[in-house]
Amino acid sequence: MNQLELKNVCFSYTEGKPVLQNINLNFQNGKLYAITGKSGAGKTTLLSILSLLTKPSSGEILFNEQNIKDMDPYEYRSKQIGVIFQAYNLLPQLTAIENVELSMDIANMKNIDKASHAQALLEKVGLSEDEIHRPILKLSGGQQQRVAIARALSYDPTVILADEPTGNLDNDTENDILSIFKQLAYEENKCIIIVTHSNKVANVADYLYRL
Q1: Which position among 14, 26, 124, 126 has the lowest Cβ density within 10 Å, counted as fewest Cβ atoms?
Q2: How far is it, in rounded angstroms, from Cα 29 to Cα 190?
């Protein structure tokens, strides 16, 4: 069964310029997908549509065979879909662990030791004890990306959407981040969808879609 399916999805700006036209794609658990294309091809727009931050002009998007337009956007974004933004979108006044705990608060997670869960996730993505408790602005770009991944995983979504997650990273850190995504897909059976300009990301993906 497809975790996500797009049927004839189109999107145009208000002035009528088409960005996406008749997009038909499907995404399954346990797979890593890369979406590539020139700047302006609609890659980030497609992620915004998949995360219900933007509504398509026409067409259908199914999540577990249910049209997402019939789902509560808040419940969908805070429990079903994890989003990793290119600019990280972390709160700079908080520490790494506080950013992850906040995500669990927003998802209204109960009956869980949030501090322990957040720490375990941050350790899982490769942060040290010291880094876990550092303010975000005292972390490197690669460390902040790891925090962003941990935050997206904090409520255990089945789908992870990532917008250029390795775009600002050096080669070694890019390899580390890719290893995390592969583990999530192949060992934890998550659906990983990455928008990227990186040939390395495109080459390791199970499926490559070009817009």
Answers
A1: 14
A2: 5
> How many structural domains compose the chain?
1
> CATH code at 168?
3.40.50.300
Q: Residue 25's closest CA among 17, 56, 13?
A: 56
Give the single-character DSSP code of 14: T
Contact 104, 154 (CB under 8 A): yes
- DSSP-assigned states of every residue in 160-186: EEEESTTTTS-HHHHHHHHHHHHHHHH
Residues counted in the chain: 211
**Residues spanned by the domain of 77:** 4-210
Beta strand 4-12 with 159-163 is: unpaired
List of E strands, 115-164: 159-163
pTM: 0.92
Query: Pick the residue with more confidence: 10 or 39?
Result: 10
Q: Express each pLDDT in 55-78 by its tens digit.
A: 999 999 999 999 998 999 888 988
What is the tens place of the pLDDT at every residue in 97-134? 999 999 999 988 988 999 999 999 999 999 999 999 99
State the CB neighbour count (10 A cutoff) for residue 111: 4
CA 60 to chain centre: 20
